Amino acid sequence: MLDFIQQLGRSGFDFFQRLGRANILFAHILGGIPGMLVRIPLVIQQILSVGVLSLLIILVSGLFVGMVLGLQGYNTLVDFGAEESLGVMVALSLVRELGPVVSALLFAGRAGSALTAEIGLMKATEQLSAMEMMAIDPIRRVLTPRFLAGFISMPLLAAIFSAVGVLGGHFVGVGLLGVDEGAYWSQMQDSVDLYDDIYNGVIKSLVFGVVVTWIAVFEGYDAVPTSEGVSRATTRTVVHSSLAVLGLDFILTAIMF
Amino acid sequence: MTDSAEPLVEIRNLSFARGDRMIFDGIDMDIQQGKVTAIMGPSGTGKTTLLRLIGGQIKPLTGTIKVDGIEVTELSRSALFQLRKRMGMLFQNGALLTDMNVYDNIAFPIREHTQLSEKVIRTLVTMKLQVVGLRGARELMPSELSGGMARRVAMARAIALDPMMMMYDEPFTGQDPISMGVLVRLIRELNDALGLTSIVVSHDIEEASSIADTIYLLSGGKVVAHGSADNLRESGSEWAKQFMNGLPDGPVPFHYPANDYAEDLLAGAKK
After folding, report:
1. Is the pTM of this model over 0.90?
2. ipTM reported for the complex surpasses 0.85
3. Which residues of A are less than 8 Å from B92 in CB distance?
């Protein structure tokens, strides 16, 4: 029993220690942002590997999620004779929820894990140490551009996800199931609000972008510098950022809508 | 060993512990300017830790470390970075940045710390590469280099900003005889040609003693002996004798501490 309490205390202690380290790192990363403004090429290079290379999985998933929404939505709405509203249903689900959330989850799996593994391996092979000995701050040189790239890419990826999803819903609803094309688009235009729906969706994806990239770079930087440590850190990135995205989504939705 | 010259690195009463284990217990050391100093000892005596302490990457428990008259342990981060620009360090496996080719790796510290034009940088990098004999390898990626080549590239990178001193962390480990010979020669030549002060951490007695002006032997957190290689081989210290000659038994026993052998055998027979 005593052992159990001791164990509990220790893991609680560890948790808060990690949280503290993560916050210090975050402050340090943010401190590097002004310096990055004059070194845009570094950020662009990272946007390529973090954002552009995630594009394929985002496009394909967006298309399929949109198509499934079209099918499911149609089946439900047709019972009420409301299949004309399919466009609204697809667009709102995507813009408000599925776009930001699913693309953040995919982003965590594709880009977040890659970031953690890359930074963790740089640590394990003493590249970060070597930078420090060359009087170069590895946090500002390596972590800040990656963080910025994630922050910039995430909302763009979510927007692309939603756009492709709407097209997927259109393909199934209008193309295969015979929903009226005019109704699909016009009802969508009427009901989707720029502020309430689109802006809130963008805010969500910005928050997810910060959280997922923060977790990814922290786990990489904090990884035990062995192959086992890096693989554990990579797993933790995906698990923690997925949970964080889902939890934060609930909180944000409760506040926004 | 000339005691007249000011030491470039002066370590006094240095202690460092990792957890409960004392790594260093009040060591004193002088690294003479312009010389090659080897720091030797069995694995796990904290030789690498010593380099990190000199570079200010970790802080000691007690004691002082002066590099070029500057107390490393009390420096602010930015002052430490200023000092590190004048130190070069070669990590065990080179620690080249894997996403850049050889050329960009060597240009990296120059680009980060100076405003030089790409033209000038190209000249500088070419000169550094020529010194280590890898001018033809500038387009290769680190993954395409052999271990010895990677270390030579890392050497070129470490001298990119013309430091006053170089620290080598186990430069000979896992090298074939040829690249070992190349590295040994390079360390000595760089030191003399560029007027560096070199610290070589190693446990390869042959190689290290062939280039070192002074050797410090570390064991159990203490400096057990220091002096030139010849002095150490003939020194009265049993420990130095064992280490320098690579004897299997001596003050560092061959046998892990155990109970009496005969008793141990009989105990099995009685069962």
Report:
1. no
2. no
3. 126
